[in-house]
Amino acid sequence: MSTALAVTDPLSLLYRLLFALPAATAISFMVYLAPVPTFYGICKKRTTEDFQAVPYVIAQLSAMLMFYYALVKTHSPLLLAINGIGCFIETVYIVLFLVFAPRKVRISTLKLLLLLNVVAYGIIVCSTLVLLKGSARVQLMGWINVGFSVSVFAAPLGVMRHVIRTRSAESIPFCLSCFLTVSAVAWFAYGFLIRDFYVAAPNVLGFLFGAAQIALYIFYRDAPRPREGHKVDPEKATADVVSQDGKLQAVKPDSMAAPGWGAEVEATIHV
Questions:
Q1: Which of 7, 144, 204, 247 has the fewest Cβ atoms surrounding its Cβ within 10 A?
Q2: Contact indicator for 198, 142 with CB cutoff of 8 Å
Q3: What is the pLDDT tens value at each position of the chain, 271 positions in all?
């Protein structure tokens, strides 16, 4: 009986690895390529518009950490390959963003890159190499990657808030959101098949965040954007009224204010 289990379990695991992992890996590769239409538009318009670099910075850091995890774990060629490619692709996206972003956005993005992808990543790598060995190093990196997987999924929260505030879906990268949602489902299925809680659990959040972005895009894609207004100085603004003798008189807004409102009135002209 024990011999049968010893033979059956490896065969079952091999089946899972041959089908589930390649499927998840292929979808992950498509996730990396999903922002291509977004950056094609950025290059064509030569502006980043309302797009933010945070999701791409976090995605690059996640790929770097997973690449390091695959190195310390050893015998993980697929993880090395997909995350090595991911690091390169995310670097290209970030460089393009920096080229076409306004100066203020470029500076803030560079600060974020320095803080997370250089300082924080360097501290993690150096500390685990010096302080930990063997399975302890692999286990810690596994937990760190779980945390950053959640960060990748939560990174678009700022974009979602911006969409709700502006009532415009222009800043949602729709293709990326769709691929992230499908990828989360695939990696959850893989983690469930191999009974790995640390792989499956973060992708539940990934599916929820991805579905929320898609829902916001559908809801706000045809919504009219709020019109911008120009503030007018109350001291300079006037309103034409007809006096009792039939002559036009210019009356300042504070003289038309209702009792109890105070003298200060702000007028807005829509164009």
A1: 247
A2: yes
A3: 333 333 345 555 555 555 566 777 778 888 888 889 889 999 999 999 888 898 899 889 988 998 998 888 777 777 788 889 999 999 999 999 999 999 999 999 999 999 999 999 999 999 999 998 888 898 888 888 888 787 777 767 777 888 888 888 777 767 777 877 888 888 787 777 767 666 777 888 888 888 888 888 888 887 665 554 444 444 444 444 444 444 444 444 444 343 343 333 333 333 3
